[in-house]
Amino acid sequence: MSDRETVSTFGSASAAAVLRSACTMIGESASGAELLRLGENAIFRLAAAPIVVRIARGMDRWEDATKEVAVSVWLADKGISAARAANIPQPVAVDGHPVTFWHFIDGRSGNNGDVRELGAVLRRLHGLEAPPDLFGQSESPLLRVGQRIAGAPVSPDDKTYLSALADRLSDDLERTPFVMPPCVTHGDAHVQNLMFADGRSILIDFERVGFGQPEWDLSVTATEFVTAKFWTRSDYQDFVESYGFDVTAWPGFDVLRRVQELKMTTWLMQNVRESPEIQSEFERRMAVIRAGRPDGAWRAF
Q1: Cα dihedral sign for 68, 75, 148, 46?
Q2: What's the pLDDT band for 4 if we cut at 50, 70, 90?
Q3: Which residues pair with 298 in a beta bridge?
Q4: Comparing C-alpha atoms, which of 173, 153, 148 is closest to residue 258?
Q5: 193-219 pLDDT tens trace
Q6: What are the chain's domains?
Q7: Which terminus of the chain has fewer Cβ atoms in its 10 Å neighbourhood, N or C?
Q8: What is the model's pLDDT at position 141?
Q9: 245: CB partners within 8 A, 6+ apart
C-alpha cells in the first residue's frame, strides 16, 4: 500500500482493527477501547489497562514515533512534566502503521481557562538546550500538507486550490525574516496538548518536536484567536503575558496565520467521511481560506 492510499483509507474503523492486533502483540485487551481522537494519529484509551495507544497513519511516520518516545524521556529529565511512554520496546509495526503505548493520564485535557498555562509551558520548553543527537532542525510547518491534500476525499477543485496555496505560502515562508532565536519547539502547540492532573499541567504529543522558530509554536494560539475565534481577547492576552511575546504584533504573523489556517483545514479534511459535521466544517473553512480573511468562528474537533 502506498503512502497516498494509507492516508485516504485511514479512519476509525481501520484504526480499530490495527488496535486489536497491536494489543495482542503486547498481551493487552482492546475490548471496550475508546477512540479519543482521530487526526494525524488514532488515539485510543484501553478499558482493561491504564494505557493510551497511538496509531500513526503510515510507516512514513516511523521516525516520528521513535522520536516521540525518546523526547518523553528527555523532557522528564529536564523537569518538564510530560506524558510517559510505557516501558516496553516500541514503536511496533502493525499492518503498515507505527504504534506506541503511553501511560494513561487520569485528568482532563486543556480548555479555555488553560491558555495562560500553555504560554508558561512554551516559555520553559523554548528555553531548553536542544541535544543534537535527539532531534535536528524542525521541518517546514507545511511538511504534511501536500500529503493530506493528495489523500483526502474532497473535490479536485479544492485540492487544486489548496495545493497552489501551499506552494505560495512555502515561498512566503522562505522570505519571512524571523525575529526570535531558534530553539526547541513543540510543533503542535495548542491547549489540548496539555493535560491536567493532580494540580499540574502535563505536556503531550511529541511527534513534531524539533529545533526551529518559536514563532511557529506561538502562531498556533494566535491563529486560534484571530481566525478560529477559539479565544476571547482576554484569553489571548493571558497567553501573551504568560509567554512574554505577542506574535500577532510581528509583521511576519500574517504568513504564519495563513499557514496555520491551511494546516488546520487540511488536518480536518482527512476525516470528512467520518461525519456530516466534519464535512460542513471543512466547507466553512474552505470559504474562509478562499476569501483570504477571518470570518466568524470555526468549530473545534
Answers
A1: positive
A2: very low
A3: none
A4: 173
A5: 999 999 899 999 998 898 899 999 999
A6: 3-104 (3.30.200.20), 112-291 (3.90.1200.10)
A7: N
A8: 85
A9: 180, 214, 218
